[in-house]
Amino acid sequence: MSTSELLNPERIACQQDSSSKKRSLEVLSDLLAGAVPDYTQAEIFDSLVARERLGSTGLGNGVALPHGRLRSLKQPIAALLTLRQGIDFDAIDRKPVDLLYALLVPESSDEEHLKILAQLAALFSNPEFCSRLRDCGSSEQCLELIHNQSSDQQLTA
């Protein structure tokens, strides 16, 4: 499954304001809750926070990949949040985070989970891509950029 297949425009929020890591995870949980009716926003939030307690998912260079597992989830889904100003996310480089791509996976999908995270890490390690994503003004623009970049990566991989 490609990274662009995990998203849809309803789960992307661009150029938002957020005051904290907690608030950003709440927004991502809200975005994801509409796609997983068997779970509440609070349950999704708890899943993301549980993973953050193991260590920050802030990769550096303004990017975080919060992720969690849900028992009866059928397939992986994602949400994207871009922020006008970065927030403290306990990233490894201690720099503020303004690009947050949240991933939920079925509890039993270890290999697929790791594969998706590797794809996302490669995608978000591209400074030009991140810069262009920061400039997007709509969820549709974000999704198109991610789709195009994901397609380019698959062609060169």
Q: What helical percentage do the residues reach? A: 40-55%
Largest beta-sheet details: 6 strands, mixed
| Gyration radius, rounded | 14 Å
Structural class: alpha/beta
Q: What is the H/E order?
A: EHHEEEEEHHH
User: How many beta-strand elements?
Assistant: 6
Main traits of this protein?
157 residues; alpha/beta; 6 strands; six-stranded mixed beta sheet; Mannitol-specific EII, Chain A; single chain
Commentary on this structure:
The protein is of the alpha/beta class and 157 residues long. The chain has a single domain (3-156), classed as Mannitol-specific EII, Chain A (3-Layer(aba) Sandwich), CATH 3.40.930.10. The protein is 44% helix and 22% strand. The protein contains five helices and six strands; from the N terminus they run βααβββββααα. The chain has helices spanning 21-33, 41-54, 110-124, 127-135, 139-156; strands spanning 12-16, 58-60, 63-64, 67-70, 77-87, 97-106. Strands 1, 2, 3, 4, 5 and 6 form a six-stranded mixed beta sheet that branches. Helix 1 crosses helix 2. The longest helix is centred in the C-terminal third of the chain and has 18 residues, at 139-156. The protein is globular, with a radius of gyration of 14 Å.
Brief overview:
By secondary structure, the protein is of the alpha/beta class.
